[in-house]
Amino acid sequence: MNFLGEDSFNNKSIELTVNEYKLILELISRKEIDGSISVKPTQVGLKIGYDECLRNLRVISKKAASLGKFMWIDIESFQYVENTISIYLDLFKENSSTGVALQSYLRRSASDLLHLIEKGANVRLVKGAYKQSEENAFQSMTEINSNFSRLTRMLFEDENRNHIFAIATHDPKLIDYAIALSQEFCTDKKQFEFQLLMGIHNELKDILVKRKFKTCEYIPYGSQWLPYSIRRIRERKRNILLLARSIF
To answer: N or C: which end of the chain has fewer CB within 10 A?
Structure first.
C-alpha cells in the first residue's frame, strides 16, 4: 500500500501522512493481510531535512516492526537518492524488515546495489519513472532494460544472500529472465518476489501465482494522484488507459 504524496514542506501534512501509514499498518494486521507499506521520503520530510525524514520514517518503521509488517522505502528523483539510501541503512540497523528501491535507469545503481548487498539489505528493483539528465541516467529503453537484467543477475548471484529482494516490472522478458535466474541460483522461492502495479497485467500475475512465485500488487491511493499518474504515463504511454479506467 502506498498513500500518495510527495515533496511536502508542510508539517501538518507530514504528520497526517505518518498517521495514515500507522493506520494502514493496523488495518493490514487486524485483517490478517499478507501486505506491506511503501513510503516516499519526500512525503515525510526529506525536503525539509535529513533528520526530519529519518525521524518520521523511524516512527513508521517502529509501528511496522511492532506488528510484524514489512516497510519499503520508495526511491525518487536523482537528487534524493544518496540521502534515501543513507536513511534506509540507518533504519535497517534498527529494523531488518525494511527495504529500499533502486532504479535501473540510473547509472549509479550498480554501485549502490553492491553497497546494499554488502550490508545485507532488502532491495526492490524498478526501472525508474523520473525524468533525469543523460549524465545521471540511461535514456534509451534498451540501455535501461540491459541494466535491469544486470542488476537482477547481481541480486540472484549474491552467494551470501540473507536478504529478500523484489523484481518490480511488468516486462515479460525481464520477468522470464528473473525466473531463469531463480532456477539457476535460488533454491527457495520465498527469498524474492515479483511486484506489479494494481490493474496492470493481471493475467501475468495469475500465471506467476500458479507457478508458486510470490506476487505482490503495488496499490497507490489518495487524493495526490496527479504527479504519480503523470510519471506513469511518461514511463509507459499505455498507462494512460489504466488512468482513464481508474478515473471512470
So the answer is: C
